[in-house]
Write a structure and sequence with these properties.
Layout (H helix, E strand, L loop, with lengths): L5 E5 L6 H18 E2 L3 H8 L6 E8 L5 E14 L2 E12 L10 H14 L5 E7 L2 H10 L14 H12 L4 E3 L2 E6 L3 E2 L3 H9 L3 H9 L7 E8 L2 H20 L1
Parallel strand pairs: 5-6
Antiparallel strand pairs: 1-3, 2-9, 3-4, 4-5, 6-10, 7-8, 8-10
Helix pairs in contact: 1-2, 4-7
Length: about 250
């Protein structure tokens, strides 16, 4: 497995227009190697200049300085019910040879901590549309509480909040029968072996994702919501440290 030589955090809003344009084109090369279904203009709007309160980017480079991956975290101000909250959304892409090491975890936790310092009393959620079983599996692995998950239905307390956020981000459900699935038109460039792996996986999270979102290979995404309390973040960090320890002992 290839190694990431260095990872750098930047704030796109602080870059000069020429630098933002050059960065967007470099990022799109990685995105286009991992995903299909989105043109450059749409990608730039999603990653570099979305209508957010704050956006940060983590850039992963190899030993020659070549960009091999990225992770963008965006913070939005939203209202759920009668309460103002912050919503984090993430887009990431990593070339296949560099995957499997949770390389974005520390960055994501640091962004959560930065939010708490600036808005200590505002409730915080992670909200995403999972495009691939691997993304959902990672979220399920580190989340103390989330929706949807195996064994849950629409009566779960998080379901109504998730649907409210779904609407606020102008994501149209695939159908009334599947209000937690949207056709976002972005799909992961999977090979045949990758597809068979996920179809045959016995892990509960993998089987759940594939069963409720069989059209993920056509660009369908699964809505997912995670409340981010100090207890939830502590759980994720403990889980991450445990996995790191297990890998080092092998």
């Amino acid at each position: 497995m290839a190694e990431i030589a260095r990872s750098i955090r930047i704030v796109p809003a602080k870059l000069a227009p020429e630098a933002r344009e050059a960065l967007a084109r470099e990022l799109f090369q990685v995105h286009d190697a991992v995903f299909a279904g989105m043109d450059y203009s749409g990608f730039k709007s999603m990653i570099i200049s979305p209508p957010t309160e704050h956006s940060s980017l983590l850039l992963h480079r190899d030993g020659d300085g070549r960009l091999v991956g990225y992770c963008a975290m965006h913070r939005y101000r939203r209202q759920i019910g009668k309460r103002v909250c912050s919503v984090l959304r993430v887009q990431s892409g990593l070339l296949k040879a560099y995957r499997g090491k949770n390389s974005n975890f520390a960055f994501l936790i640091s962004q959560v901590m930065r939010h708490w310092l600036s808005h200590p009393l505002r409730p915080l959620y992670f909200f995403g549309v999972m495009l691939h079983p691997s993304s959902y599996a990672v979220m399920h692995k580190f989340s103390r509480r989330m929706w949807p998950a195996p064994g849950q239905d629409d009566s779960h307390p998080l379901a109504a909040k998730a649907y409210e956020l779904f609407s606020s981000f102008q994501l149209t459900p695939l159908s009334p029968e599947k209000p937690f699935i949207a056709n976002v038109g972005i799909l992961t460039r999977d090979g045949k072996d990758d597809h068979l792996y996920w179809q045959n996986s016995a892990k509960p999270a993998d089987r759940f994702f594939v069963s409720v979102n069989p059209g993920y290979r056509d660009g369908h995404g699964l809505l997912a919501l995670v409340p981010l309390s100090p207890l939830a973040v502590g759980h994720a960090v403990a889980r991450w440290l445990k996995l790191r320890k297990q890998k080092k002992s092998r």
